[in-house]
Write a structure and sequence with these properties.
There is one protein chain. By secondary structure, the protein is an alpha/beta fold. It has a single domain, classed as 3-Layer(aba) Sandwich (Rossmann fold), CATH 3.40.50.880. Helix content is about 30%, strand content about 20%. It contains seven helices and eleven strands. It starts with a strand and ends with a helix. The mean pLDDT is about 95. The protein binds manganese (II) ion. Manganese (II) ion binds next to loops.
């Protein structure tokens, strides 16, 4: 069974369930650990949601709307991503995770979509009685991307998919070597991937919230398939 490192966050349950249902073993990692200890014996890395990455991490002044409150988490997760990429461990990065992934690889972020993107859609679902699995907007998928390949069976012939949305930041300058795999109709980047990696995919929405109904199960299954290959290489 493949061992998956999941970064600690305040809403862990759905991430855990999504990995367990895809056949993985869950290990929670946080900044109290060294990066080496966190990744030893691991076959994949799942980066979870949370607060904004400090803009100093990508060389920008902080926008007033930025709530960057987790310097230890930034430090730990950026180092974790760099080490995981060195080892070519499969990476699935969700919400804050896609942002950490892009920054760790040298990219930058839109700090506040509502004030910095003209004509932006509503990316922050807050209207009660909102459920985490309520859909917010569609994303347009890049034709030959890993993301589209994974989602193909669920999509039939569609080239877009409805997603939930709980973010006010997004990828701005793409890290070198990465490609955009999905974009919202307002131009906000919603998914990225590194085609040279074994498996390295970041999504801006929350696929883990759908573990009961399976809308995005192929993302977790594809991630686990890549992690299982690492696991077999170990044994
Ligand atoms: Mn969105």
């Amino acid at each position: 069974m493949a061992h998956i490192a999941i970064t600690a966050c305040s809403r862990l349950e759905d991430y855990k369930q999504a990995i367990l249902h895809a056949g993985g073993e869950v290990h929670i990692v946080d900044s109290s650990m060294s990066v080496t200890d966190a990744l030893n014996g691991m076959d994949g890395l799942l980066l979870t949601g949370g607060d904004d990455v400090a803009p100093t991490r990508y060389g920008e002044e902080k926008h007033p709307a930025v709530k960057a409150v987790a310097p230890e988490r930034d430090e730990f997760e950026i180092a974790l991503v760099r080490e995981a990429r060195k080892r070519d461990l499969p990476i699935l990065a969700i919400c804050r995770g896609i942002q950490v992934l892009n920054v760790a690889a040298g990219g930058s972020l839109v700090q506040d979509i509502p004030t910095q993107v003209t004509g932006a859609l509503e990316h922050k679902q807050t209207v009660p009685p909102h459920q985490p699995f309520d859909l917010a907007h569609e994303v347009w998928l890049e034709k030959d991307s890993l993301l589209t390949k994974l989602m193909r069976e669920r999509l039939s012939d569609a080239d877009s998919v409805e997603v939930n949305s709980r973010h006010h930041q997004s990828v701005k300058t793409l890290a070198e070597g990465f490609e955009v795999s999905a974009t919202a109709p307002d131009g906000v980047i919603e998914a990225i991937e590194d085609p040279a990696a074994r498996f390295c995919l970041g999504v801006q929405w929350h696929p883990e919230n759908f573990w009961r109904t399976g809308e995005f199960r192929p993302l977790f299954e594809g991630f686990m398939e890549a992690a299982n290959k690492v696991s077999h290489a170990h044994s």
